[in-house]
């Protein structure tokens, strides 16, 4: 991997993880690791351009159909591709098809840029995620194969105990909070060969386990505010990203 490469443009492709949920901004929007990374790259390069085509709720097939063509046409120096996570979490998932579509996405994007970045995306530690580990392990093994084939960088967040810690995740238990996104931005920054500004994988202090009542109250709120609506969308075939445009749909000069 080359180090100290100057990137003049960056396109982010993916779903809610790359859109930036749940790193909330005062205006109700989201920032996220990709915006944080773009800000740091822009500080080094005058005229730096950035686009973020990621949209929450997108499956890998939708990412291929809706994002990879426009992203490839932009011809950016740097492209990040993270997808398949929403597919893996569905009750029925053809992981072979997911891998095939991810391969299609990488084949479209890799020739269009100087550097393609893939990820072994993070997972919140806990009993719920354990049932999905076999699928995720297979998906991430394929990500490694794709990286070797396309000379891509892989950022391994899945293996991080720190990023997987529940304290790095929002109340919906599905998206990283502001600190989680900040650590991901640092991880990608370092993977691109830049000098570390901190240890993104530094362990958290020992957690203080909440009492029984606090845990049950938290579980009830989670079920009411997040799990219930998620199930309702699955049953009705809807997605949180339906009708939503990317927050940065054009490759334009970055302004923080």
Automatic annotation (TrEMBL):
**Where do the segments described as Disordered lie?**
235-256
Protein name, please? SGNH/GDSL hydrolase family protein
Domain SGNH hydrolase-type esterase, residue spans: 12-183
Q: Which UniProt keywords apply?
A: Hydrolase
Protein species of origin: Streptomyces botrytidirepellens
Write down the PANTHER family for this protein, in alphabetical order.
GDSL-LIKE LIPASE/ACYLHYDROLASE, PUTATIVE (AFU_ORTHOLOGUE AFUA_2G00820)-RELATED (PTHR43784), GDSL-LIKE LIPASE_ACYLHYDROLASE, PUTATIVE (AFU_ORTHOLOGUE AFUA_2G00820)-RELATED (PTHR43784:SF2)
Asked if the keyword Hydrolase belongs to this entry, the reply reads: yes
Taxonomic lineage from the root: Bacteria, Bacillati, Actinomycetota, Actinomycetes, Kitasatosporales
Q: Which GO terms describe its molecular function?
A: hydrolase activity
Q: Name one Pfam family in it.
A: Lipase_GDSL_2
